[in-house]
Structure to design on (498 residues):
């Protein structure tokens, strides 16, 4: 990924934190996923308006003591994987929540 | 259950998290099923705002799987408002409904809200049988139409087929109907007592011979040789296990805010109108008692040869009068499956035989003892049922 990357949680999924892990049920095929603690931090910060590099810099690096460039690489691989299962949305532009999109369409 | 789901359940158990909650939105219903365990009068359901507050509490407590059931959920005018709120809180929502109020518009709305699955009760492929059970003419046609609408939207639909005397033997055709509709099928051979303790509907339960046939149907049971094999010897892991998830990682909330360990375990444990859900979950003495029971603490069942593989329901045992006791319906299932009577069934058979002997002796003396037996409802009901089943 060379451009700025924004990530947002899909509204089609169900999710709940259990301990430090996140349980996610895909609305597409009822498959259950769990995210480890690092992935959970990214998931929780995926609000559509914060870019992935900002998430890595502000949330991952301080909490897990990793180098920013290595952490960003891992984070990009993770979000691509989650996006391929339809549980996360990726865009080069900020992603508006469905409610805002509906209001805009009126 | 998948390995991942098992892992999550074990983690929830270790953390004391209520992973699953069934919330009945109403006991009102537009059907009057002959086997239903509910009183359909409205005794003061929670308001929309109370339910929304409760959902927020449940999400905060860690509840992931939320089953919305009833009564008939679609009779709540605020049903979609509640569902929308539940999905905004990212619950994995499952619905249980008779679906007769669901048409294209409702099906599409349910789909757009990302519901995980919808379970619809279908009792028979024959309308004269299904409609006689629901007591609503035309209900089979309406439920099946609704399943088509839901399926056309791409939703996961499960047909639930409860077996009772009225529809015994119809399940292969209902399963074929599910296949034709492209939906899942599940079968339940147990009629449970009413929540107020009335056991009269248990007469609708299928008999031992029919139960035995079900367990030997490969299309239902899979490898019959394996599933109907004599029970294996229990080890320490079996005896240290918790009897079921009720009160441990799951619970039930009634339309009036009452919290129970499970919909089939009507032990009042608190009310969310008076106490926060999480306080009930952590501090209710009733739930603590349920949680304190391990399989080895069950005086009869821990000594029974079936203990390692038994489907014993603590709620049914509770409704028989003792949450640490056996549940006769599960004893009958174990017997139907393996041909080996449980310790409880053996004891019942012995006491029935003794009662018959005593009755004969007393009849010879010309003394009427029926009223005395009438004061012992549990003994009378269970002995009669057991004796009849053991004869077949």
């Amino acid at each position: 990924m060379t451009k700025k990357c924004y990530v947002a949680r899909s509204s089609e999924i169900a999710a709940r934190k259990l301990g430090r892990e996140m349980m996610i049920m895909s609305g597409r095929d009822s498959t259950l996923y769990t995210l480890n603690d690092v992935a959970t931090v990214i998931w929780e910060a995926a609000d559509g308006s914060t870019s992935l590099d900002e998430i890595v810099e502000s949330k991952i690096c301080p909490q897990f003591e990793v180098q920013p460039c290595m952490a960003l690489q891992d984070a990009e691989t993770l979000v691509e994987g989650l996006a391929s299962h339809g549980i996360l949305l990726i865009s080069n532009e900020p992603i508006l929540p469905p409610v805002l999109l509906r209001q805009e369409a009126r | 259950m998948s390995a991942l789901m098992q892992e999550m359940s074990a983690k929830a158990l270790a953390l004391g998290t209520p992973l699953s909650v069934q919330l009945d939105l109403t006991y009102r219903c537009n059907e009057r099923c002959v086997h239903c365990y509910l009183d359909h009068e409205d005794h003061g359901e929670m308001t929309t705002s109370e339910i929304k507050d409760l959902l927020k509490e449940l999400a905060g407590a860690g509840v992931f799987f939320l089953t919305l059931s009833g009564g008939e959920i679609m009779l709540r005018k605020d049903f979609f408002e509640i569902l929308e709120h539940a999905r905004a809180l990212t619950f994995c929502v499952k619905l249980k409904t008779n679906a007769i109020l669901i048409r294209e518009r409702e099906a599409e709305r349910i789909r757009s809200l990302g519901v995980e699955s919808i379970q619809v009760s279908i009792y028979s492929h024959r309308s004269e049988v299904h409609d006689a059970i629901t007591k609503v003419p035309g209900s089979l046609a309406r439920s099946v139409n609704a399943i088509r609408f839901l399926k056309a939207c791409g939703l996961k639909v499960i047909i639930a087929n409860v077996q009772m005397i009225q529809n015994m033997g119809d399940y292969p055709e209902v399963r074929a109907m599910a296949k034709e509709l492209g939906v899942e099928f599940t079968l339940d051979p147990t009629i449970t007592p009413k929540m107020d303790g009335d056991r009269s509907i248990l007469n609708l339960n299928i008999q031992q011979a029919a139960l035995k046939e079900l367990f030997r149907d490969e299309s239902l049971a899979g490898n019959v040789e394996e599933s109907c094999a004599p029970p294996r010897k229990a080890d320490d892991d079996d005896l240290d296990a918790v009897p079921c998830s009720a009160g441990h990682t799951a619970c039930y909330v009634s339309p009036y805010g009452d919290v129970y360990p499970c919909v089939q375990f009507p032990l009042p444990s608190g009310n969310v109108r008076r106490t926060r859900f999480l306080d009930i979950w952590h501090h209710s003495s009733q739930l603590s008692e349920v949680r304190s029971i391990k399989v080895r603490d069950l005086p009869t069942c821990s000594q029974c040869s079936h203990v390692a593989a038994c489907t014993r329901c603590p709620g049914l045992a509770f409704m028989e009068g003792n949450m640490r006791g056996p549940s006769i319906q599960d004893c009958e299932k174990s017997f139907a499956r393996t041909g080996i009577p449980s310790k409880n069934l053996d004891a019942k058979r012995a006491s029935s035989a003794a009662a018959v002997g005593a009755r004969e002796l007393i009849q010879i003396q010309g003394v009427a003892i029926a009223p005395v037996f009438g004061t012992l409802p549990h003994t009378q009901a269970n002995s009669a049922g057991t004796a009849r089943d053991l004869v077949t």
Notes: The CA atoms of residues 8 and 89 of chain A lie 5 Å apart. The beta strands of chain A are 6-9, 14-18, 21-25, 32-35, 47-51, 88-91. The two ends of chain A are 34 Å apart (CA to CA). Confidence is low (pLDDT under 50) at residues 99-106 of chain A.
